[in-house]
Amino acid sequence: MAHLFTLARTPSGIEPTIPRLPDPPMLERVALEDPWLTIGGLAAVGLVVCVMLLRQARGRPAAVVAAVVSAAVGGLAASASLVTTQREHLIDLSRSFIDAVATGQADPAVRLLSPDVDALILGRSVETSPERIGRFVSREMNGTWKLREYSLSRLAASIDGPNVARTQMRARAVPEVTAFPNGSWWILHWRKDPGQDWRISRIEAQQIDGVGGAFNPGL
User: Fold this and answer.
1) Cβ-Cβ contacts under 8 Å for 95 (sequence gap 6 or more)
2) Contact 197, 188 (CB under 8 A)
3) Which of 170, 183, 147 is nearest to 11 (CA)?
4) Tens digits of pLDDT across the chain (219 residues)
5) Rounded to whole angstroms, how far apart are CA atoms 41 and 10?
6) Residue 113 pairs with which residues in a beta bridge?
7) Cα 159 from Cα 79, distance rounded (Å)
């Protein structure tokens, strides 16, 4: 969209400094989204304690410690695999949207857009609509800007209020027309209306490598 992540290139090879979204709450992150470091730490501490107790011929306390640590590790692993946080859900939706745009699938991309969606491209407001974005995806992403390959990295999400959120990502793509890797930073602004799932209310291009503020996206 708007030559989505297709016009960027980094002539110097130096990645730009981009303001990042705030970090998630620590408890939510370590308990539900990325518990593996915590699990590894618990397992290591439990192992050390058990070894020390066994060396003192205290088998019963060692067994209790092993059982407690195993339960804690199992609980954390189960929680992480069974519970999907709103941040994780938004990141999944972001991937779905970018996948649809990058592969020229207009319908699934448009379904994730709010009726009043707008765009902010390199700090400049751009009027658009789901229909215009759908036409762009259908026409340009299957034609002029068809991609040979693409990837996303640095995905992050921030819940800014009860019904508003943002996701941020670094996109890299290789258009067939140039066969040159391009990169850009994007923020998707999300709104959750009553009785609906999250939808994109604004598409923001934070940075496009090699492109200045006068860039006309043509959405």
Assistant:
1) 152, 155
2) no
3) 183
4) 544 444 443 444 455 678 888 877 666 666 555 666 777 787 888 888 888 888 888 888 888 878 887 877 777 666 656 667 889 999 999 999 999 999 999 999 999 999 999 999 999 999 899 999 999 999 999 999 999 999 999 999 999 998 999 999 999 999 999 889 989 999 999 999 888 899 999 999 999 987 765 454 555
5) 39
6) 200
7) 20
- φ, ψ of residue 72 to 5 degrees: the values are -65, -45
The alpha carbon torsion through 122, 123, 124, 126 (nearest 10 deg) reads 70
Characterize 120-129 residue by residue with b for buried, 16 or more Cβ atoms within 10 angstroms of its Cβ, and e for exposed.
Answer: ebbeeebebe
pTM metric for this prediction: 0.71
